[in-house]
Amino acid sequence: MNIPLSIAAVGRDTADSVRLTPAPPPGRLIDSPRFPVQARVELGNAVQRKNLHQAMTTIRAKRAVVTAELDNWEQLRLAGEAIKNRTLRHLDHYLVQLEESLTAAGTTVHWARDAEEANRIIVGLVEESLGERREVVKVKSMATQEIDMNEALEEAGIAAWETDLAELIVQLGHDRPSHILVPAIHRNRSEVREIFNEEMGRYGRPAPEGLDTEPANLAGAARLHLREKFLRAKVAISGANFAIAESGTLVVVESEGNGRMCLTLAETLISVVGIEKVIPTLEDLEVFLQLLPRSSTGERMNPYTSLWTGPSSGDGPTTTHVVLIDNGRTKVLADPVGRDALRCIRCSACINVCPVYEKVGGHAYGSVYPGPIGAVLTPMLRGVTSPVDASLPFASTLCGACFDVCPVRIPLPDLLVHMRHKVVEAKAEAASGGRGLLHPHLEPVLMRATGTMFARPSLWAAAVAGGTLGGRILKGHVAHFGPLPWPLASWTGARDVPIPPTESYRAWYARTHHEDGSLK
Amino acid sequence: MSSSAREEILGRVRLALADVPPADETPIPWTYGQPRALDDVLDRFEDRIIDYRAAFERCSGAEVPARVAAALARYCARSAVLPDGLDDAIGAALVASGVAVRSDRPPLTRTELDATGAVVTTCAVAAAETGTIMLDHGPGQGRRALSLVPDVHVCIVRADQVVSDIPEAVARTVRALRERRPVTWISGGSATSDIELTRVEGVHGPRTLHVLLVETEGRG
After folding, report:
1. A94-148: per-residue pLDDT in tens?
2. Is residue B161 situated within a structural domain?
3. Which residues of A touch B170 (CB under 8 A)?
4. Nearest chain B Cα to A284, which residue?
5. B129 near B36, Cβ under 8 Å?
6. Is ipTM beyond 0.85?
7. Could you give the domains of chain A?
8. Per DSSP, what are the bridge partners of residue A242?
9. CB A399 within 8 A of CB A355
10. Model confidence over A229-276: pLDDT tens digits?
11. Which positions in chain B touch A314 (Cβ < 8 Å)?
């Protein structure tokens, strides 16, 4: 398949000769093109479109079956929402409690305000613990992706090996994840075989001779390739799905056993945990560990869940660190409306059900968080100043399917509208800041004009009369407007505009009803 | 400086939550630790284990050693690690059937563990509705790596350890967690759906999970 291999070839010929791990695509995610621009590119990727359609259809059906099985599913959602709200509304209290519990259990706690600080701490901790090989093994973690930790380690001359099968495919493919749960879902089996054959040997045990495209055999190749890395691992880096304030217990949920390998075989374990991951008690796990797997992979339970509370004598790592990261989360918390997004447990149910995501895939979102939650959380965490961030809240039809499946009842459609408002506000502010006359932003102007019209019945009546007149003239000639000239082109480029009706609702009502509301 | 980062983050959090009254406490509409109503807990457990495409059989306590030996023979495992605290009769049965039995005292190296064909453990509790077996790594269960690195895991579950669902099972493991012991939940063998969402059983963890449900201590 020409797209992946050409990317791989470019990466290899340029930077890879001095790199320890495969080079990801160049550039920062925040500099990605606006969503509609990249979406158009992604729509041209037929392999991705086919894979996504099939995968998303399957995973939605599985989720629907296993959530319908539980007669208390809605109560579980309400409980999950309430536990997260309780925690977030007193996050300072629970963070301090978590720190005390972790410390009492023998874990060293570090705090990082942003990605750069987190990476500096992590590099320092890894340097202290390295063996003869300058490498770490990694459990799949969204937090480490968010801070771009692998590249920070690479710059420090330390190789970070992804051990989740999909993350391995992405890493070896010089690629970026396109989904938070199944990051290589945009690849098909023959692409995976190509990547394994081409790349595995450069970074460790080569793919077996004569590897075919059977998923079981591809997984077998990954097992062999990674086993030597697990058996010699000194340092492992994980995230955490949950951090329990009362006990200092961390929880990692996974399927393949790569997580358990990292969490138990290494001597030093560094866990990178967003400050919103804390929940109050061990008992709260009974709620979240029913919600998460059913919402995520559509399984009643994921194959492996690891719970650990500091180092354990004679079992697993002897040194444990936790790096608590803010990286924009307190900014989200400061917005009383937006803070609902911090309840997210990264299950991916909203992504799997999103009709927009299913067509364009994850790369269009310019963020490690795609889909509805990404369209909300990314601009909340990064702000709405970059072109891609300002475009993300509009990457939705507001159909509402995401709220219905969210296990912690995040009102995603409301938050999308909330963030659209922020984007428009920011544009208006930029417009009034000196550039206004030359390049007026059309939306704030139109919205203001519409607001004025709604406020004055005479203006409204005149506008309606104009519309229905247009409708009467056009009726019978055209069914809808095609593409319109600027400034309406950006709206009609992807939409048909129906011709106006020949009669307004008010006129119809007055014609067919008496003043008391009864039908004529 | 990490301590100033701590103060700054906590300061940001407090500032962000200025609108929340100190006495605010979101009520949790949930009763913890409740059982789930199931027709037959053991049947549900069996159904779920089989659904994960793991092997399942029921036997009496007296039959366990022979069943373990038969299972290892079926999977062609020629060596096995037996954690401290496992019934000695199991080791004896394995030795008699020609399996090289290894103890974890002193601890096996990772390489030795990797070269070991199977592991036999007991468990702490199991949840029927999700087919989840929980190890608290107490006697008979061994440290975490034992039930991870070998390719075959035979797990002995007593009928009285099987509860209806996750809430009851969590309640039974809270004590071990408060004592800071690690706990591992196992629901079928290791698996992945990362390639085209096709489920593949067996990635890094044991590719074979064999569950022995012990319904009575002896025969009759």
Report:
1. 999 999 999 999 999 999 999 999 999 999 999 999 988 999 999 999 999 999 9
2. yes
3. 282-283, 285-286, 289
4. B32
5. yes
6. yes
7. 2-32+72-329 (3.40.50.10420), 456-512 (no CATH)
8. A251
9. yes
10. 999 999 999 999 999 999 999 999 999 999 999 999 999 999 999 999
11. 107, 143
